[in-house]
Write a structure and sequence with these properties.
Length: 608
């Protein structure tokens, strides 16, 4: 046993990096920055560099080897001033990596042996925060967590990350494997996948590996606006092939995604014979939005019979239907999780709760004192997600007003106790406005005419066009049109809203989904959460709930291989659907929770 303060206690580099990026480590970072400034590092110029000395040369004045290593980790990246301080935690951890074991852990003793007293003193302070490795602190700066770190350091950090607790909160996955799978069920298959890389996506792929899928023969492609970088690098650390497209692309470039999908399929098919019978299948496709399936049938139809596939979203099924209208028939089986009764019925309440829970989280991140008063909310679009969002709002005491262009949906909302009216009448109550239609429902030029002052607007549909924010450009030097916006020394965008100081987003991390305050000539202000991008694409749904969706995807993959040699859309087997729903509800009931009336506030987040 080791006591708090033991020099030999093992600390995970992942936890150390999270701790150093948190506000509790400000004194450490301030002290390191002060020392680096004294050594000649310039943080306040056009770029973070080493100052010129009297001789005209740039050199670091004598400090210990550890801080020289840290200084080099900062000045070699061409950082902007607002990135300099944000890069210090990463530079510290990059130096600590050199003292780490293969499993990505360090001790105060190891650090002192390599780097000396200064480095070990910093490590000891972090060890105290982490209770000698027994405590985990939240990731407070996801956008910069892995920036400015070499790939080798990232892999070592990712290897140290905690993953076991998440899988334990998703027992349905193991139960499905025992019912439908086996250690060789997916053996010999290659796999290519497009998925939102949330923390709970990791246990899904781990379960596929337990069914025989080889991580080294699998490509997993994330989406830029939803990719959780912890998840990406942890999957890589476990041996999965996860390209960085999800971190490098821009939202909405569907054509570019198709082009890249074709490039990756070239790699998948390079050693396969198109004349093979396809029994057993050679490639498993786990698709989201039909991107891989479209590229397969348009660019590689001769290989389609070697594949079996699973499609997660209704949009993906629409892509398949659109291909058929153009005369392109499916040449492989596609298990449709998208239109399974279990997903359509049981997932919608979860999504509505996710929207409202994400709004609460985003507002808390802005300023913990920020509230919505009066508690009146407008929901535009009363489909499955709109209705579920209204339910979640009412669980929190909001009076809900509904507008939909479909009169039948308006009558449905009225029958369910919601207030309906004309667009103008309803938006006048929009102290919180949630748009869930998939199309543009309001634009900034209408805000003053239709909305109360200090309204908060949220997209629960798609893209960033829903609230007209696709027409609002970012200004020079990544600034917005908000005259009150500033960037603090830590690289956070700041402004004011409702008289409060608000933290809008991470400019140092080049976060595209920062919130924006729009001010009118009349002096009114409105807050658009996450720049008008979909609000619930940052936080994951708690594992206890999302195991239903992950479980259906797993069941679909295990079923797909049974349809080798067939073609067309296939439903998820009804017994498998019923099993997933029944077991998910059973585990939720044990915690006094429900699929039909979900409440995420009673659970820990998927990632701290």
């Amino acid at each position: 046993m080791t006591s708090v303060g033991s020099k030999n206690a093992r600390l995970r580099l992942d936890d150390v990096l999270d701790a150093l990026n948190g506000r509790q480590s400000r004194p450490i970072i301030d002290e390191v920055k002060k020392s680096l400034v004294e050594a000649g590092v310039q943080f306040d110029g056009p770029a973070v560099v080493v100052r010129e000395g009297p001789d005209g040369r740039r050199h670091i004045r004598p400090i210990d080897d550890f801080e020289i290593r840290v200084a080099k980790g900062i000045v070699t990246h061409g950082l902007r001033p607002e990135q300099g301080r944000a890069a210090i935690p990463n530079a510290l951890v990059s130096a600590l990596v050199e003292a780490s074991a293969e499993d990505g852990t360090i001790s105060v003793a190891d650090v002192e042996s390599l780097w000396g007293k200064r480095a070990s003193a910093i490590t000891a302070q972090v060890a105290k925060m982490l209770d000698d490795g027994k405590k985990e602190l939240p990731t407070t700066r996801r956008r910069t967590k892995y920036k400015w770190l070499p790939e080798s350091d990232i892999q070592r950090i990712a290897k140290s990350a905690r993953t076991e607790p998440l899988a334990k909160r998703m027992p349905v996955l193991g139960e499905i494997s025992r019912m439908l799978g086996g250690p060789n069920k997916l053996a010999g298959l290659k796999m290519i996948s497009v998925q939102h890389l949330f923390p709970t996506t990791g246990p899904l792929f781990d379960e596929l590996a337990k069914n025989g899928l080889d991580p080294s023969k699998t490509q997993i492609h994330g989406k830029n606006y939803s990719t959780n970088e912890d998840t990406l690098f942890r999957l890589r650390g476990a041996g999965w092939d996860v390209p960085t497209f999800g971190l490098q692309s821009l939202p909405g470039r569907d054509g570019k995604m198709m082009n890249i999908a074709g490039q990756y399929l070239t790699d998948v098919f390079k050693d396969l014979d198109p004349n093979d019978s396809g029994k057993p299948p050679k490639v498993l496709i786990l698709d989201e939005g039909g991107k891989i399936l479209k590229a397969l049938h348009e660019d590689f139809p001769e290989y389609a019979h070697l594949c079996v596939a699973v499609e997660q979203t209704d949009h993906g099924i629409q892509v398949i239907e659109e291909m058929k209208q153009r005369g392109i028939e499916l040449e492989c089986p596609v298990v449709s999780v998208a239109r399974s009764g279990a997903k359509k019925i049981a997932e919608s309440p979860m999504i509505g709760e996710s929207v409202v829970h994400s709004i609460e989280t985003a507002i808390k991140d802005l300023n913990e004192k920020l509230t919505i008063q009066p508690k009146e909310a407008v929901v535009i679009g009363y489909g499955a997600v709109g209705k579920a969002t209204a339910d979640a709002l009412e669980r929190r005491g909001f009076k809900v007003f509904v507008y939909d262009t479909d009169s039948a949906k308006m009558e449905k909302a009225k029958a369910e106790g919601r207030t309906i009216g004309s667009r103008e009448e309803i938006l006048a109550h929009g102290h919180l406005v949630i748009s869930a239609t998939g199309r543009t429902t309001i634009v900034p030029d209408e805000f003053d005419k239709l909305l109360p002052n200090r309204a908060i607007l949220v997209n629960a549909g798609s893209g960033n066009h829903e609230l007209g924010m696709d027409s609002i450009e970012e200004g020079p030097a990544f600034r917005t049109s908000d005259p009150k916006e500033t960037v603090d020394e830590d690289g956070w965008r700041r402004s004011t809203f409702k008289g409060l100081d608000v933290t809008l987003g991470d400019r140092a991390g080049q976060d595209q989904m920062f919130s924006r305050v729009l001010r009118s000539e009349t002096g009114n202000e409105r807050l658009v959460l996450r720049s008008g991008y979909v609000v619930n694409m940052v936080e994951d749904i708690p594992p206890e709930f999302i195991q239903l969706t992950r479980g259906l995807l797993l069941a679909g993959c295990l079923q797909a291989v049974n349809h080798a040699g067939q073609a067309g859309i296939v439903d998820v087997d009804k017994p498998a659907q019923d099993f997933v729903v029944k077991r998910t509800q059973k585990h939720l009931s044990d915690k006094r929770l429900s699929l039909t009336s979900p409440d995420f506030r009673k659970l820990a987040p998927a990632e701290h």
